Amino acid sequence: MSEITLILADDHAVVRSGLRMLLDAQSDMRIIGEAENGRVAVELARTLKPDVVLMDILMPEMNGIEATRLILELEGDTAVLALTMYEDEQYFYEMLKAGAAGYVPKRAAPDVLVTAIRTVNLGAVFIYPSMATRLVQDYFGREGTESTSPAKADLTPREQEVLVLIADGLTNADIGKKLGISVKTVDRHRENIMTKLKLHSRIDLVKYAIREGLIDLDLS
Question: Mind listing the domains of the chain with CATH numbers?
Answer without folding.
Answer: 4-137 (3.40.50.2300), 147-211 (1.10.10.10)
